[in-house]
Amino acid sequence: MKTTEEKTEASAAEYRNLVATLTALRIQKGLSQYELAKRAGVVHTTIARIEALEYQPLLSTFLSIAHALGCTVSIQAQE
Q1: Of 16, 19, 73, 79, which residue is the least packed, with the fewest Cβ within 10 Å?
Q2: 7-45, pLDDT tens digit by residue?
Q3: Contact present, 37 and 44 (Cβ < 8 Å)
């Protein structure tokens, strides 16, 4: 069984991976942070702070960003 510290680090790693994926998709689609923010209905500093790992938004914000990128968010059970 994982310790609390191990679980926290695993969660942080998952968050970093999620942000890296969203950032890569934004760049792949040729969108600036400002353009993505406008499409997602958030201020551009929100995108900048998320990508800099300075801010962990609500799930609804992540869903708006993913939707603006033409993506969906799914949850998978751990084995």
Answers
A1: 79
A2: 788 889 999 999 999 999 999 999 999 999 999 999 999
A3: yes
CA–CA dist 53, 61 (Å, integer): 15
Cβ atoms within 10 Å of 40's Cβ, excluding its own: 20
3-state secondary structure string, the chain? CCCHHHHHHHHHHHHHHHHHHHHHHHHHCCCCHHHHHHHHCCCHHHHHHHHCCCCCCCHHHHHHHHHHCCCCCCCCCCC
Are 36 and 18 spatial neighbours (Cβ–Cβ below 8 Å)? no
Interacting residues of 60 by C-beta distance below 8 A, sequence separation 6+: none
> Is 32 in a helix, a strand, or coil?
coil
